[in-house]
Design goal:
about 160 residues, alpha+beta, four-stranded antiparallel beta sheet, 11 strands, single chain, five-stranded antiparallel beta sheet, 2 helices
């Protein structure tokens, strides 16, 4: 009889522990702030360079090095200005709002990051393709503004062919 009561006691303790674990998991799944904190705790914070491109933006523009970075499940661009000695200085970080890297054909070559003259004005733009959650391709284009020394998000001109 004592074995049966000990067995039932163990079962009750096990059921209580499982119930607490289940309630904790449901709470984490339902509360967005908790879900985000748990996701951040388990997600990799590694930083991966997906692509690099360098070039002079225009006749009077700076010489740039652009990196396409994947970090923590997010994509972004880091733009560095390069001086005569070759040392790099971070100018800006440009977020890409999709999480999947994309590719496109530029002059017959597949690339996932490019400096190209999209609007045929003599100045190069940064072109970074991505895919959204439904795998719809997006072409992110950034144009250098010499007055503000910043990059403005642009859309492709009518009839743009890379």
């Amino acid at each position: 009889m004592s074995n049966d009561s000990a067995f039932k006691k163990t079962e009750i303790i096990l059921m209580a522990v499982l119930a607490v674990v289940a309630m904790t998991l449901v709470t984490i799944a339902v509360v967005p702030n908790l879900r985000l904190k748990v996701k951040e705790a388990f997600s990799s914070s590694s930083r991966e360079v997906l692509a690099k491109v360098s070039g002079k933006i225009g006749p009077n523009g700076p010489h740039l090095t652009v990196l396409k970075i994947k970090s923590g499940g997010h994509l972004g661009l880091e733009v560095y200005s390069e001086d005569e000695n070759g040392s790099l200085t971070l100018m800006t970080k440009l977020p890409l709002f999709e999480a999947r890297d994309g590719h496109f054909l530029l002059q017959g070559n597949a690339t996932n990051l490019a400096l190209t003259d999209v609007d045929k004005d003599g100045n190069l733009e940064i072109v970074a393709p991505t895919y959204d959650e439904q795998m719809v391709p997006r072409l992110n284009i950034f144009r250098f503004n010499p007055e503000s020394k910043a990059f403005d998000r642009a859309s492709a001109p009518e009839g743009f062919e890379p």
